Structure prediction request, 188 residues.
Amino acid sequence: MPSDDSDILFPFAPDSDDAQFAGEDDGELKPLLGDDYYMRAALRCAQQAADAGEVPVGAVAVKDGLIIARSWNQVELLKDATAHAELMLIASLPQVIGDWRLDGIDIYVTKEPCAMCAGAMVNSRIRRVVFGMRDPRCGAAGTALNVTGFPGMLHNVEVTAGLMEEECKEMFQAFFRTVRANARKKKS
Prediction:
C-alpha cells in the first residue's frame, strides 16, 4: 500500500490542486475532488508495481467520492497471469461493500483494460472506468476492442479515456527502458 493514505482519511479535503467546486448549491451533495485526484492515486499504485518489478499498472476503486480499495499488477509476484491490477481490485471489493454487484463504483486505472479486465468490469457492473494510457493493440475499453460498451452485453461500463495519459505513458516507457537496459547488461 502507498504510504500516503491522506486521500482515504480526508477524501473531501480541498487542499488538493485538483479540487473543484461544483458550482451553484442546488442542495445536492457533490464531491470536491476531480478525476485527476483519483488518477494520481492510481499512479502511486502503479509506482508500487514498478518498484516490485511488475508492469506499472495501478488502480483504485472509488465509491461516493471515497477511495475504497487499491491495487497494482502482481503477475510476477503471484506467478498468476490473471493478477492484473483491475482484477485484483475487483476481487477485493465484495469484502469491502458486501456484494459482488459493484454498482456505483468507478475504477481509475493507469492503462486501458485488456479484454479480461474489461469483461470483469462488465460482469461485476462497474459504473465507470477512467483510464490513462490507451492501448492500441490490446485495449478493450474502446481502442482496439469495445468490451465495456458491446451492445449485446447485459451491462455497459461508462468509459473516460486518456486522463493524464502522458504521465501514465511516461511511467510505462521508463519502466520498459529500465527492463531493456537490465537485459542488455545481463547479456554483456
Notes: The CA atoms of residues 182 and 188 lie 10 Å apart. The radius of gyration is 17 Å. DSSP finds six helices and five strands in the chain. Residues 165-187 form the longest helix (23 residues).
